[in-house]
Protein backbone atom coordinates (compact mmCIF):
# COMPACT_ATOMS: atom_id res chain seq x y z
CA UNK A 1 0.00 0.00 0.00
CA UNK A 2 1.40 3.37 -0.93
CA UNK A 3 1.69 6.34 1.38
CA UNK A 4 -1.21 8.25 -0.19
CA UNK A 5 -3.54 5.29 0.28
CA UNK A 6 -2.54 5.00 3.92
CA UNK A 7 -3.17 8.68 4.46
CA UNK A 8 -6.66 8.16 3.01
CA UNK A 9 -7.21 5.24 5.41
CA UNK A 10 -6.15 7.53 8.26
CA UNK A 11 -8.50 10.28 6.99
CA UNK A 12 -11.37 7.80 6.96
CA UNK A 13 -10.77 6.55 10.51
CA UNK A 14 -9.62 9.61 12.41
CA UNK A 15 -11.02 12.94 13.51
CA UNK A 16 -9.31 16.05 12.15
CA UNK A 17 -7.45 16.50 15.43
CA UNK A 18 -6.05 12.99 15.51
CA UNK A 19 -5.31 12.96 11.80
CA UNK A 20 -3.14 16.05 12.29
CA UNK A 21 -1.37 14.31 15.20
CA UNK A 22 -0.80 11.16 13.12
CA UNK A 23 0.64 13.14 10.21
CA UNK A 24 2.92 14.96 12.65
CA UNK A 25 4.08 11.67 14.16
CA UNK A 26 4.74 10.40 10.62
CA UNK A 27 6.87 13.50 9.95
CA UNK A 28 8.75 13.29 13.25
CA UNK A 29 9.41 9.57 12.69
CA UNK A 30 10.73 10.35 9.22
CA UNK A 31 13.16 12.95 10.61
CA UNK A 32 14.39 10.49 13.26
CA UNK A 33 14.71 7.75 10.63
CA UNK A 34 17.07 9.97 8.65
CA UNK A 35 19.07 10.87 11.72
CA UNK A 36 19.43 7.26 12.92
CA UNK A 37 19.66 5.56 9.54
CA UNK A 38 16.38 3.65 9.80
CA UNK A 39 14.04 2.75 6.93
CA UNK A 40 12.14 6.01 6.26
CA UNK A 41 9.18 4.38 4.54
CA UNK A 42 8.62 1.94 7.40
CA UNK A 43 8.79 4.76 9.93
CA UNK A 44 6.26 6.79 7.95
CA UNK A 45 3.87 3.87 7.64
CA UNK A 46 4.04 3.07 11.37
CA UNK A 47 3.75 6.77 12.18
CA UNK A 48 0.61 7.45 10.15
CA UNK A 49 -1.03 4.23 11.40
CA UNK A 50 -0.02 4.18 15.06
CA UNK A 51 -3.37 5.58 16.34
CA UNK A 52 -5.52 4.20 13.51
CA UNK A 53 -8.07 2.50 15.84
CA UNK A 54 -7.92 5.03 18.67
CA UNK A 55 -11.40 6.33 17.92
CA UNK A 56 -13.05 2.90 17.74
CA UNK A 57 -15.20 2.38 20.84
CA UNK A 58 -13.77 0.30 23.69
CA UNK A 59 -16.14 -2.64 23.23
CA UNK A 60 -15.31 -2.95 19.50
CA UNK A 61 -11.63 -2.92 20.36
CA UNK A 62 -12.04 -5.44 23.16
CA UNK A 63 -13.80 -7.80 20.76
CA UNK A 64 -11.04 -7.33 18.17
CA UNK A 65 -8.47 -8.33 20.79
CA UNK A 66 -10.44 -11.28 22.14
CA UNK A 67 -11.04 -12.63 18.63
CA UNK A 68 -7.34 -12.48 17.78
CA UNK A 69 -4.84 -15.13 18.83
CA UNK A 70 -2.67 -12.54 20.59
CA UNK A 71 -2.04 -13.08 24.28
CA UNK A 72 -3.01 -9.78 25.88
CA UNK A 73 -1.53 -8.99 29.31
CA UNK A 74 -4.14 -8.58 32.03
CA UNK A 75 -3.09 -5.00 32.77
CA UNK A 76 -3.64 -4.04 29.12
CA UNK A 77 -7.11 -5.60 29.19
CA UNK A 78 -7.89 -3.51 32.26
CA UNK A 79 -6.68 -0.27 30.65
CA UNK A 80 -8.87 0.84 27.72
CA UNK A 81 -6.43 3.66 26.86
CA UNK A 82 -3.97 0.97 25.77
CA UNK A 83 -6.39 -0.99 23.58
CA UNK A 84 -5.65 0.99 20.44
CA UNK A 85 -2.01 -0.05 20.29
CA UNK A 86 -2.98 -3.73 20.12
CA UNK A 87 -6.03 -3.19 17.90
CA UNK A 88 -4.04 -0.82 15.67
CA UNK A 89 -1.65 -3.66 15.03
CA UNK A 90 -4.52 -6.08 14.34
CA UNK A 91 -6.14 -3.57 11.96
CA UNK A 92 -2.89 -2.94 10.08
CA UNK A 93 -2.35 -6.66 9.66
CA UNK A 94 -5.86 -7.81 8.85
CA UNK A 95 -7.40 -4.84 7.05
CA UNK A 96 -4.35 -3.29 5.39
CA UNK A 97 -2.36 -6.47 4.89
CA UNK A 98 0.77 -5.08 6.50
CA UNK A 99 2.91 -8.08 7.35
CA UNK A 100 6.18 -6.40 8.31
CA UNK A 101 6.72 -7.51 11.94
CA UNK A 102 8.79 -4.45 12.79
CA UNK A 103 6.03 -2.04 11.67
CA UNK A 104 3.40 -4.13 13.48
CA UNK A 105 5.43 -4.16 16.71
CA UNK A 106 6.08 -0.42 16.46
CA UNK A 107 2.31 0.13 16.45
CA UNK A 108 1.71 -2.40 19.20
CA UNK A 109 4.28 -1.02 21.63
CA UNK A 110 3.93 2.72 20.98
CA UNK A 111 2.00 3.11 24.24
CA UNK A 112 3.73 0.81 26.71
CA UNK A 113 7.20 0.39 25.22
CA UNK A 114 8.85 -2.96 26.06
CA UNK A 115 12.28 -4.44 26.64
CA UNK A 116 14.54 -4.97 23.64
CA UNK A 117 12.74 -2.63 21.28
CA UNK A 118 13.99 -2.33 17.72
CA UNK A 119 15.22 1.03 16.43
CA UNK A 120 11.95 1.45 14.51
CA UNK A 121 9.89 0.76 17.66
CA UNK A 122 11.89 3.34 19.63
CA UNK A 123 11.50 5.92 16.85
CA UNK A 124 7.70 5.55 16.82
CA UNK A 125 7.46 5.64 20.63
CA UNK A 126 9.54 8.82 20.72
CA UNK A 127 7.92 10.43 17.67
CA UNK A 128 4.50 9.93 19.29
CA UNK A 129 5.60 11.85 22.37
CA UNK A 130 7.60 14.54 20.58
CA UNK A 131 5.60 15.35 17.43
CA UNK A 132 5.17 19.05 16.83
CA UNK A 133 1.60 19.08 18.16
CA UNK A 134 2.81 17.93 21.60
CA UNK A 135 2.80 20.95 23.84
CA UNK A 136 3.25 19.52 27.37
CA UNK A 137 6.06 21.14 29.30
CA UNK A 138 8.69 18.46 28.77
CA UNK A 139 8.01 17.86 25.05
CA UNK A 140 10.68 20.22 23.79
CA UNK A 141 13.29 18.69 26.10
CA UNK A 142 12.43 15.17 24.87
CA UNK A 143 12.46 16.41 21.26
CA UNK A 144 15.97 17.78 21.68
CA UNK A 145 17.16 14.70 23.56
CA UNK A 146 15.83 12.43 20.79
CA UNK A 147 18.46 13.90 18.47
CA UNK A 148 21.26 13.33 20.97
CA UNK A 149 20.69 9.83 22.33
CA UNK A 150 17.77 7.56 21.40
CA UNK A 151 18.14 5.27 24.45
CA UNK A 152 18.50 8.08 26.94
CA UNK A 153 15.42 9.71 25.43
CA UNK A 154 13.51 6.42 25.78
CA UNK A 155 14.57 6.18 29.43
CA UNK A 156 13.54 9.75 30.23
CA UNK A 157 10.18 9.40 28.46
CA UNK A 158 9.43 6.06 30.16
CA UNK A 159 10.28 7.52 33.58
CA UNK A 160 8.05 10.51 32.86
CA UNK A 161 5.18 8.20 31.86
CA UNK A 162 5.62 5.99 34.92
CA UNK A 163 5.62 8.99 37.25
CA UNK A 164 2.45 10.23 35.60
CA UNK A 165 0.81 6.80 35.98
CA UNK A 166 1.80 6.52 39.64
CA UNK A 167 0.55 9.99 40.43
CA UNK A 168 -2.94 9.03 39.26
CA UNK A 169 -2.87 5.55 40.88
CA UNK A 170 -2.89 3.84 37.48
CA UNK A 171 -1.62 0.35 36.71
CA UNK A 172 1.85 0.10 35.18
CA UNK A 173 2.11 -2.44 32.34
CA UNK A 174 4.78 -5.11 32.84
CA UNK A 175 6.27 -4.22 29.42
CA UNK A 176 6.83 -0.64 30.63
CA UNK A 177 8.58 -1.84 33.80
CA UNK A 178 10.77 -4.20 31.79
CA UNK A 179 11.69 -1.37 29.43
CA UNK A 180 12.53 0.85 32.40
CA UNK A 181 14.77 -1.86 33.88
CA UNK A 182 16.58 -2.37 30.59
CA UNK A 183 17.55 1.31 30.30
CA UNK A 184 18.33 1.65 34.02
CA UNK A 185 20.77 -1.27 33.76
CA UNK A 186 22.29 0.07 30.54
CA UNK A 187 22.86 3.44 32.14
CA UNK A 188 24.38 1.94 35.29
CA UNK A 189 26.87 -0.08 33.28
CA UNK A 190 27.91 3.09 31.40
CA UNK A 191 28.91 4.83 34.65
FE1 LIG B 1 -1.52 6.13 20.70
FE1 LIG C 1 -0.35 9.06 19.11
Fold-level CATH name: Hypothetical protein af1432
As residue ranges, the low-confidence spans are none
The molecules bound to the chains, other than polymers, are: fe (ii) ion
In CATH terms, the superfamily is Hypothetical protein af1432
Distance between the termini: 45 Å
Report the sheet with the most strands, covering strand number, pairing sense and barrel closure: none
Percentage of β-strand residues: under 5%
Helix and strand run: HHHHHHHHHHH
Number of helices: 11
Give the CA-based shape: globular
> Nearest-angstrom radius of gyration?
16 Å
**Total domain count:** 1
Helix residue percentage:
55-70%
What's the architecture in CATH terms?
Orthogonal Bundle
Total strand count, please? 0
- Round the mean pLDDT to the nearest integer and report it: 96
Structural overview:
This protein is globular. Helix 8 (119-130) packs across helix 10 (150-167) and helix 9 (139-146) packs antiparallel against helix 10 (150-167). 70% of the residues lie in helices and 0% in strands. It starts with a helix and ends with a helix. The model has no long low-confidence stretch (mean pLDDT 96). The protein has helices spanning 3-13, 16-35, 40-49, 58-67, 74-77, 80-94, 101-108, 119-130, 139-146, 150-167, 174-190. It is mostly helical and 191 residues long. It has a single domain (3-190), classed as Hypothetical protein af1432, CATH 1.10.3210.10. The structure holds fe (ii) ion (FE2) (2 copies). One fe (ii) ion is lined by residues 21, 25, 50-51, 128.
